[in-house]
Inverse folding.
């Protein structure tokens, strides 16, 4: 596996020449610094098979008989007997029962778009369905919170990257008015290469020799490489619940996030992602609907978040971190003849962490008795109301600022304890 | 570093594959960047025909630089706006700096609009060889004349070239030849003529300090006329005594000549120097470093430099045959040499404009045209290659400094600036009022084979922009993360195809109009930020 430090590691910072100023030491006492971890599920996650409306089980089963999870296999949630989880998600079930998981039902936006690309843009930018925004919602927040970025950064108050994307390019969610507010560690290998002073492999050719030199220079040039390495090296032991490296890419990404948070980075936002949720066909095994493609995906999601939460607890930073999963859309109520589901609209969002108001917000989706291909799950909450709630209740952002970041006022949801 | 395998292929005629890869290698090295149309044109012809075209095309000489420089502080009373200033013999503190800028921008424009000819690349080569600095010469006309001399001799006879450049006003001024007189000999040119321009400082060069002094005396008497802006020979300032040279030059005695005929001593001096085989080796090594690879190992010295140098001598120092032999050799096309050079700042900036077919204002809008050329020139200067003004008489370090050579172009200062330049060219570009130079990502993609197929689009872009391959998992990463917004699996590819086709059908559709250009911008930005883009 080749790993590339430029521009993966400094992606987004390549826009300017970087001053070679000595970095301020990381100050202590940032335990109150809140961190948000966004988990993007690419492809459109089938929310109806993730959070199952036991309350309307018959309609659910009738709409998607070929992929419906058997009622007795659905994982039960303490205190909420009308709703259950896909059997592939025992870790998330435990977290819910421990009060570390909050489910928000029916999250979408008015006049939803069915295109992956456009719907993704909408979620990441925070736009209305017919509005084109060139900035990302998190980028706008960071731009207000950290004015004069990047000219005045790093500095004593914010010596670290404002946001870090792991496993991908810098997300459009982090796009600020002029440039991106985040940096990317585009694959876990490049992270471990950096902290272990290991050079990425190059071919043994004249060109390879030149590449090795340029990469070395790009690491030296990256003003944040040092703080990331220093933070990572402060953490020598992590939870044993993570699967072996390479088995679960989301877990690999979250493991790095936990390490950087516990290592003292003041980075506010992390983005991680996993793909494969575009399950048009063979979403489940034909004979056993609790297994198959979607179950594997949900299993990895659950395993990764479960290990991450355990790790945060072990590293004593659990209170600082809230996570949120999201996908560009949910899928259709009625399954198709290929054993899959087509692009839909609203879906549940999962929040995880120990500072949450646990439980379920919203009600099970109403399902028609005879669902057709045109039936979609109704919206209960605008996704931007969730963003607003996270900004105000988790990051303690002023109401006016939130409205300016999200370009509108949204009603807040009771997602955070004592907030 | 330095662990790469040696290249053993010698100078024998290359008879291997001649496909787009090979053509791109040849064109990247001999032109600034490779335009798609040039690549298409060349790889359909034979290697021999292409090399002939590159070397023998008699491209017309460019129209001269013009007055683009009237501003609110100065209006040239003599030269009308848009007219060339090269016939003007009036120089003052107001027009000289403006004309120097005009000259340098004009030169950059010639690189952008070069024909399928190696000429402009050779002009840069010779500029880096027979260095003068515009700042030191400090006269726009001299600088222009010198630049045209480089162009005139770029592919001609090296010996004649040496004679001509020796008495060129810019050179007389730069290395004090004009001040080299019988009474007060100035050794500056006499030294560099040997150390930097002809025999060099290689292992086979053994000229002495006495040779420097003797050469300087031969060269006494040249002056610059500041009324006509020409050089001339003044026998009264010439040292007409005999000049004795060392054993390295076979104890040659150059007889002192009196009167106007004394300038013939220069011919004799140059003949004497060119009798040293080291001249041919020195120049061939320098050409090799400029066109092939920075390090010359023993094998290469024996199998490439020696035969090139022998041919150079045999052809009486004609430049074209040497380049022809080099560019048609197995050694040149050894795949180990592909992508083995770091782009010079000029290759980087001008090459980008040519590869992406950046559209500049035409000559009817010469103010903006020269303005954009100047902006690019400043970019290259910021990356440490200021054309017209190399750092010193030895030229740019990256062309000669052991052991780093072209790695010197990349530093913690210049690498971010290189990324900044490519980022800017793809996002917004450079502006002058309502005019702009910027990459059109959709047009570039449309010129690649099958842009609707995400795999072919990426591999086509990689092939167009790089001289090295990207590992498969990198290509996959790029596809998933850039073109497919994180979607994975074979079935996902059609989402890109649909977006591309929808855009082609209706580019103004509100929902689609940003998707394709934005993804392409991200794609090309990403590719240009990777270290691979620094290589050629």
């Amino acid at each position: 596996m080749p790993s590339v430090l430029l521009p993966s590691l400094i992606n987004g910072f390549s826009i300017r020449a970087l001053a070679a100023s000595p970095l301020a030491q990381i100050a202590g006492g940032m335990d109150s610094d809140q961190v948000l971890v966004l988990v993007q599920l690419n492809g459109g996650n089938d929310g109806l098979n993730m959070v199952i409306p036991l309350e309307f089980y018959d309609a659910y089963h009738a709409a998607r008989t070929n992929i419906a999870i058997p009622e007795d296999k659905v994982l039960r949630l303490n205190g909420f007997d009308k709703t259950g989880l896909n059997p592939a998600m025992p870790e998330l079930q435990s977290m819910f029962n421990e009060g570390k998981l909050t489910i928000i039902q029916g999250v979408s936006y008015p006049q939803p778009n069915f295109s992956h690309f456009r719907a993704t843009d909408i979620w990441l930018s925070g736009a209305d369905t017919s509005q084109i925004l060139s900035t990302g919602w998190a980028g706008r927040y960071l731009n207000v919170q950290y004015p004069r970025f990047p000219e005045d950064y790093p500095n004593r108050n914010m010596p670290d990257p404002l946001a870090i994307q792991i496993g991908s390019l810098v997300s459009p969610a982090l796009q600020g008015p002029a440039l991106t507010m985040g940096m990317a560690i585009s694959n876990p290998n490049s992270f471990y290469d950096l902290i272990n002073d290991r050079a990425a492999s190059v071919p043994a050719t004249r060109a390879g020799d030149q590449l090795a030199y340029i990469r070395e220079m790009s690491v030296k040039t990256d003003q944040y490489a040092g703080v990331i390495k220093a933070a990572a090296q402060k953490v020598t032991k992590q939870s044993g619940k993570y699967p072996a490296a390479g088995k679960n890419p989301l877990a690999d990404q979250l493991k790095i996030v936990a390490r950087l948070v516990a290592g003292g980075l003041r980075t506010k936002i992390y983005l991680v992602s996993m793909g494969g949720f575009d399950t048009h066909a063979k979403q489940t095994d034909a004979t056993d609907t609790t297994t198959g493609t979607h179950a594997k995906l949900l299993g990895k999601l659950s395993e990764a978040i479960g290990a991450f939460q355990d790790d945060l607890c072990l590293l004593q930073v659990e209170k600082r971190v809230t996570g949120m999963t999201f996908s560009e859309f949910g899928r259709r109520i009625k399954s198709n003849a290929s054993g899959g589901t087509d692009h839909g609209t609203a879906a549940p969002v999962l929040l995880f962490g120990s500072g949450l108001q646990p439980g379920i917000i919203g009600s099970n989706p109403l399902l028609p008795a005879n669902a057709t291909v045109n039936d979609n799950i109704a919206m209960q909450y605008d996704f931007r109301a969730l963003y607003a709630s996270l900004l105000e209740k988790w990051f303690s952002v002023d109401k006016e600022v939130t409205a300016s970041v999200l370009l509108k006022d949204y009603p807040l949801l009771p997602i955070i304890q004592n907030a | 570093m330095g662990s790469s395998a040696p290249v053993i292929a010698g100078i024998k005629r290359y008879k291997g594959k001649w496909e787009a890869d090979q053509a791109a290698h040849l064109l990247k090295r001999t032109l600034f960047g490779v335009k798609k149309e040039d690549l298409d044109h060349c790889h359909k012809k034979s290697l021999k025909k292409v090399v002939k075209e590159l070397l023998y095309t008699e491209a017309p000489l460019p129209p001269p630089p013009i007055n683009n420089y009237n501003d609110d502080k100065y209006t040239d009373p003599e030269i009308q706006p848009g007219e060339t200033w090269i016939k003007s013999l009036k120089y003052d503190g107001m027009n000289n700096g403006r004309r120097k800028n005009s000259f340098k921008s004009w030169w950059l424009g010639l690189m952008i609009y070069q024909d399928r000819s190696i000429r402009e690349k050779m002009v840069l080569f010779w500029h880096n060889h027979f260095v003068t600095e515009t700042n030191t010469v400090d006269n726009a006309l001299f600088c222009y004349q010198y630049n045209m001399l480089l162009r005139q001799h770029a592919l001609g006879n090296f010996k004649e070239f040496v004679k001509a450049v020796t008495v060129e006003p810019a050179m007389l001024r730069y290395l004090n030849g004009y001040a080299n007189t019988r009474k007060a000999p100035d050794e500056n040119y006499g030294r560099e003529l040997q150390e930097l321009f002809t025999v060099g400082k290689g292992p086979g060069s053994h000229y002495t300090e006495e040779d420097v002094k003797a050469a300087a005396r031969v060269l006494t008497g040249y002056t610059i006329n500041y009324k006509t802006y020409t050089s001339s020979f003044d026998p009264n300032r010439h040292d007409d005594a005999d000049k004795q040279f060392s054993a390295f030059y076979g104890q040659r005695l150059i007889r002192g000549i009196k009167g106007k005929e004394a300038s013939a001593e220069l011919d004799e001096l140059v003949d004497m120097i060119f009798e040293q085989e080291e001249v041919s080796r020195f120049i061939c090594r320098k050409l090799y470093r400029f066109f092939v690879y920075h390090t010359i190992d023993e094998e290469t010295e024996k199998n490439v430099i020696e035969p090139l140098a022998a041919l150079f001598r045999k052809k009486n120092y004609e430049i074209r045959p040497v380049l022809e032999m080099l560019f048609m050799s197995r050694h040149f096309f050894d795949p180990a040499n592909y992508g083995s050079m770091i782009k010079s700042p000029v290759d980087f900036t001008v090459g980008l404009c040519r590869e992406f077919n950046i559209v500049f204002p035409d000559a009817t809008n010469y103010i903006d045209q020269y303005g954009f050329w100047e902006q690019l020139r400043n970019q290259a200067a910021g990356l440490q290659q200021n054309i017209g003004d190399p750092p010193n008489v030895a030229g740019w370090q990256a062309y000669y400094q052991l052991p780093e050579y072209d790695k010197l172009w990349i530093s913690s200062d210049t690498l971010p600036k290189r990324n900044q330049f490519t980022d800017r060219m793809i996002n917004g570009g450079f502006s002058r009022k309502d005019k702009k130079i910027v990459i059109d990502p959709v047009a570039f993609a449309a010129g690649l084979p099958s842009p609707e197929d995400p795999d072919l689009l990426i591999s086509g872009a990689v092939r167009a922009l790089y001289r090295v391959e990207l590992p498969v998992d990198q290509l996959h990463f790029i596809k998933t993360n850039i073109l497919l917004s994180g979607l994975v699996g074979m079935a996902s590819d059609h989402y890109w195809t649909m977006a591309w086709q929808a855009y082609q059908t209706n580019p103004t559709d509100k929902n689609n109009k940003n998707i394709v250009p934005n993804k392409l911008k991200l794609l090309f930005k990403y590719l240009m930020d990777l270290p691979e883009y620094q290589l050629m």
About this structure: The CA atoms of residues 55 and 82 of chain A lie 5 Å apart.
